[in-house]
Amino acid sequence: MTYRIEEKLYITDDALFEFRKYINEKGASEIYKKRIIESLYFENKYMQMYKDSIEGLTPRKKIRIRKYPDQEKNKFYEEVKITSAEGKFKTRNIIDNNGYEDKINRGIYDSQYGLCKPKLYIKYEREYLKLDDVRITIDKNIEFTNYQKRLTLKDQRIIIEIKTSVKKNLDQLMNIFPFQRIRFSKYCNGIEISKIPT
């Protein structure tokens, strides 16, 4: 189990060019090709994962099934993202199309949250870069789809995530990236934008 620090930066569309220029001058390099990510988030009937995230409670989880539709057609990743006092970490299991359909129909049982059912699709375009021991992702063209109503809404924001080991000094990390930090969850934002009852 490897814990990590995750910080999110808010960059306007106008400022993205300057951000790219800044990290390129510091030696950032692309580590993966840009790709589309689609995630289906699961939630219990009390919307407890959403509420725990909003309140900042730990430990808390987000449960999702992720796919990369332009690269892997019938391969899915069941992921549990865990936030604890020690940091954040993620578990991942590969499932096939049958496993995916089974999870959608039956739900996913979690020891903390009980039975969780599909709630929200999130789709976006992600770029992957690295600067020394810090991984940088740039997410844009974000779309949220209410699973039950199949209503899709767009979010024009650009979200940049910086991820590194918990051993990294946080003040030093933020000196390297002197940009506005935000507390942001795509899942929580999607729930609110899609007007899913909580």
Structure keywords:
198 residues, alpha+beta, mRNA Triphosphatase Cet1, Chain A, 11-stranded antiparallel sheet, 5 helices, 11 strands, 22% helix, 49% strand
Could you explain how this protein is built, in words?
By secondary structure, the protein is an alpha+beta fold. The chain has a single domain (4-193), classed as VTC, catalytic tunnel domain (mRNA Triphosphatase Cet1, Chain A), CATH 3.20.100.30. Helix content is 22%, strand content 49%. The chain has five helices and eleven strands. It has helices spanning 16-25, 48-55, 97-106, 170-176, 186-193, and strands at 4-11, 29-43, 60-67, 76-84, 87-95, 108-110, 114-131, 134-146, 152-155, 158-165, 181-182. Strands 1, 2, 3, 4, 5, 6, 7, 8, 9, 10 and 11 form an eleven-stranded antiparallel sheet that branches. Strand 8 (134-146) and strand 9 (152-155) form a beta hairpin. The mean pLDDT is 93.
Give a summary of the structure in a few sentences.
The protein contains five helices and eleven strands, in the order E-H-E-H-E-E-E-H-E-E-E-E-E-H-E-H. The chain is of the alpha+beta class.
